[in-house]
Specification:
Helix content is about 35%, strand content about 25%. It has about 140 residues and is an alpha+beta fold. It has a five-stranded mixed β-sheet, with helices on both faces. The protein is globular, with a radius of gyration of 15 Å.
Length: about 140
């Protein structure tokens, strides 16, 4: 059974889990340390969730931005441990995040996903996300 919970305190188990999860998302990013994870959960309008079964097998981050055109939520860093794939962990994480966001008075939920993440893109469409025809630009600093 998978349990999803909001991270309110950074424990050694959480730090260890992210050392395993982040490289599965991207090899380019550095692994967050305890201080970095604490900064995330202490940042206003940023919510970090983990999936446990019973150890941590996934994570998802929700960020709410307030702009003149309205409040929007972004789902970021949806990560499911390779050993937990096929157990609907990703779907449970994203569905949980959607339900959480519905209580935040936002006008939309956005996310990005690499086209080569076939299963993830299929999941997002299944959950009602619509592929937008837009360009995503990044300036790496």
């Amino acid at each position: 059974m998978i349990k999803i919970e909001q991270v309110k305190d950074i424990t050694p188990e959480i730090v260890e889990a992210f050392s395993i999860l982040i490289p599965q998302l991207t090899a380019k990013n550095k692994i967050p340390d305890k201080k970095s994870l604490e900064e995330i959960i202490e940042t206003k309008n940023t919510y970090l969730f983990i999936a446990c079964a019973p150890h941590i097998v996934g994570s998802i981050t929700v960020v709410v931005t307030n702009t003149p055109s309205g409040s929007k939520a972004w789902i970021e860093d949806v990560i499911v441990d390779k050993d937990a794939c096929g157990q609907n962990t990703g779907e449970k994480l994203v569905s949980f995040a959607i339900d959480f966001i519905k209580g935040l008075n936002v006008s939309s939920i956005n996310l990005t996903s690499s086209p080569d993440r076939i299963a993830a893109n299929k999941l997002y469409r299944k959950l009602g996300f619509i592929l937008r025809e837009t360009n995503v630009y990044r300036l790496t600093i």
